[in-house]
Amino acid sequence: MGKKKLTRWDLQKMKVSGEKAVWITAYDYWNATFAEKAGMDMILVGDSLGMCVYGYESTVPVTMDQCICHSEAVRRAAKNTFVIGDMPFLSYQVSVERAVLNAGRFHKEAGVDAIKLEGGKRVCPQIRAICDAGMLVMGHIGLTPQSSGQLGGFKAQGRTADAAYELIEDAKAIQEAGGFALLVEAVPPEVCDIIRQTLSIPVYSIGAGIDADGQLMISSDVTGVFQAFTPKFVKKYENLADKTIQAFSDYRKDVKEGKFPAPEHTYKMIDGEFDKLTTLLK
Length: 282
Hints:
Elements: H1 8-17, E1 21-25, H2 29-37, E2 42-45, H3 49-52, H4 64-77, E3 82-86, H5 96-110, E4 114-116, H6 124-132, E5 137-142, H7 148-151, H8 161-177, E6 181-185, H9 189-198, E7 203-206, E8 214-217, H10 219-222, H11 240-256, H12 273-281
Parallel strand pairs: 1-2, 1-8, 2-3, 3-4, 4-5, 5-6, 6-7
Helix pairs in contact: 2-4, 4-5, 5-6, 8-9
């Protein structure tokens, strides 16, 4: 019997009790399997798959179909883990109606437990409508990669008093609109802590310090697979990139030198059958 999948109320109880929630991104069946076996509380099928899987320069090109496809694979692997689908660029900004329909796709086609979308007060109508349609919504403020152009690039946010105040107001608005939780990205720890103390819903950090109700990390960063750049807030727990390159290099060397495949890597004919084949070929 596997572990019991958490609910929003379990996550709420963890905030109250002070137990940190731990979650990670996953984009495919195998990494989701590993995440569940490792005991992750939640898995985010992030639009970061654009960079981590497809090699895009940002998350902007990611489509709904791509997110749905990856979310389906993660759901199949992690049946007992709370899975969050990430709403990609232009899947919710255009209209409230489109936001509800696309959030519904995540649930109908991929069986997610909740969706996440970026933005503060300006996306609260979408948050309210999705919640009114019976779905769970997680907010996301601070460094919001989909609008990184407006932010001047992938830069920390809330570093001035005025900017921090706006983030706190955005956080309040998201909770009021019905958001069940909030992700705060690349924000000074003291600002994240104020938000956590201000809101009654769980407040999670990715690059926003330890004083949050839990932490999110990108799986490709944790394993050291993603090599394009390393954000300041990343801790690499392994360097699978170098290990994989070495494995590929060793395989190439063995083939070039005639060491692979060895007899133990091949299949033998049934005794006596080769002689029969030789006779047939005469």
